Amino acid sequence: MSIIENKIIGNTLIITLNNPSKRNSMIKGFHDEFQSAIKIAEEDKNVCSVVIAGEGDFFCAGGDLNALKTRRSMTEPERYQTLNQLNGTIESIYNCSKPIIAAIEGGAAGAGVSLAMACDLVVMSEYSFFSLAYVKIGLTPDGAATKFLSETMPRQMLAEMAMIGGKIDASRLYNIGAVNVLAQKGNAKETAVELSKNFENLPKNSISRIKKLSRAAYGNDFSKQIKLETDYMVKSQGDKESMEGIDAFLEKRTPDYKKLR
Q1: How confident is the model at residue 156 (pLDDT cuts 50, 70, 90)?
Q2: Cβ-based neighbour number of residue 74 at 10 Å
Q3: Which of 34, 35, 38 is nearest to 98 (CA)?
Q4: 63 three-state secondary structure
Q5: CA separation for the pair 201, 29 (Å, rounded)
Q6: Where are any strands of DSSP class E within 19-141?
Q7: Averaged pLDDT, 76-84
Q8: pTM for the complete prediction?
Q9: What is the model's pLDDT at position 65?
Q10: How many angstroms from the chain centroid is the CA of residue 234?
Q11: How far apart are CA 4 and CA 237, in angstroms?
Q12: Which residues contact 237 (CB under 8 A, 6 or more apart)?
């Protein structure tokens, strides 16, 4: 049985974390299979977006505690090596040129929060939650969890999550803008797939540049960000996508970006 399953519906690649008996935790082989799935999305010109969902009633419980127990006997270089597998997974989402939507059913815990928040858009079902309870087992967050969460929530809420280990429910996350859509219980995946259809006839190069701009904005100062925006605008103005978009607007017709893939 594959730990990660892939299925293309329309122009969306659906990546399903397929280990429900362990709440889709990141067991051995998870990272290699997941990164391969993202590579498929990146290389398939007919894939416009990605949806990541968990099989069963939970999105992802993060690291496998049985595997984490073995880390105490490792050397520090060995621990870095194992953590870099997780980092590679998060980076594959972060650096993917195509929009990625997380579909959270039940909840996300530990590195599962990192997996969700690395995505561009987040759909959560009612009564689901985020949990960053590393502190309860004497650990600290990883997978850039504190980076992603600090971009979307007040420091005090992050402290509640990380320093106390409290759960933050979907409604609170939605109210602060960390979640795009609240879905009915059991409908997160279906809602995310419907949301992904927005990308079917949008310009892929433009989306890729906007994704990079949005990511860079949190770390760049004014001068760096305006320079990056200028660079991308210069490229976009010479792109066939903008030619099609501007011509379509002036000719009062719907642009056809599919022909440019």
Answers
A1: very high
A2: 12
A3: 38
A4: strand
A5: 35
A6: 49-54, 100-104, 107-109, 121-125, 129-131
A7: 94
A8: 0.95
A9: 83
A10: 28
A11: 39
A12: none
Give the H or E element holding residue 5. strand 4-9
Tokens 């927005």 correspond to 198
Query: Domains in the chain and their CATH numbers?
Result: 4-199 (3.90.226.10), 204-260 (1.10.12.10)
Q: Which residue has the tokens 């290699």?
A: 32
Q: What is the H or E stretch that residue 114 is in? A: helix 111-117
Contact present, 129 and 81 (Cβ < 8 Å): no
Determine the Cα angle at 162 with ends 166 and 34, to 5°: 100
pLDDT confidence tier of residue 108, bands split at 50, 70 and 90: very high
Nearest to 57 by CA among 14, 19, 111: 19
Instruction: Give the percent of the chain with pLDDT over 70.
Output: 100
Quick check: 1 and 24 in contact, CB under 8 A?
Answer: no
Tokens representing 199 are 């990308």
Q: What is the distance between the alpha carbons of residues 204 and 199, in angstroms, rounded to a whole number? A: 8
**CA nearest 51: which of 1, 113, 122?**
122
Asked whether the beta carbons of 17 and 60 are under 8 A apart, the reply is: yes
Give the count of alpha carbons within 13 A of 156, CB side only.
1
Letter for the amino acid at 208? S
- d(Cα 64, Cα 12) in Å, to the nearest integer? 29
Q: Alpha-carbon distance 97 to 197, whole Å?
A: 17
Q: How far apart are CA 72 and CA 76, in angstroms?
A: 9
Q: Give me the phi and psi of 128, to 5 degrees please.
A: -85, 175
Contact 227, 213 (CB under 8 A): no
- The residues, ordered by sequence, that sit 6+ positions from 261 with a Cβ below 8 Å of its Cβ are 45, 46, 204
Q: Are strands 12-17 and 4-9 parallel, antiparallel or unpaired?
A: antiparallel
